[in-house]
Design brief:
single chain; alpha+beta; three-stranded antiparallel sheet; 3 strands; flat
Length: about 110
């Protein structure tokens, strides 16, 4: 069996749990209370290993300078901005890698003549 990376495994487990929690269907995963702030479940990952997945509930503090809706919107925007910045950096790295490869190949051809 292929050994799938931790980041891919973790993302897939989170997606499964969120889909189960958010769907309107009967829950298919058994969640057990861990403490007053968390529930947990056991899932088998794509590598065939049992994993303990915790679901936590964080209640944001009341703030005088921003409403609850405003705070949620600002956190969503901050997340989206970070994701966009990561995507732009990845695109720039890929473009640079392609340019560098073309430059190396041109140099190799030049040396071969």
């Amino acid at each position: 069996m292929a050994n799938i990376s931790k980041s891919v495994i973790d993302a897939e487990l989170r997606a499964r749990v969120f889909a189960d929690l958010i769907s309107n269907e009967t829950l298919s995963i058994e969640y057990l209370k861990v403490n007053d702030r968390q529930y947990g479940c056991i899932l088998t990952d794509q590598n065939g290993v049992e994993r303990y997945v915790r679901i936590g509930v964080i209640v944001a503090e009341e703030r005088e300078d921003i409403s609850a809706r405003g705070l949620m919107a600002s956190e969503i925007k901050a997340y989206e901005d970070k994701q966009n910045a990561k995507a732009e950096k990845a695109k720039a790295r890929a473009e640079k890698a392609a340019k560098d490869k073309a430059k190396r190949e041109a140099q190799k051809e030049k040396e071969g003549e």
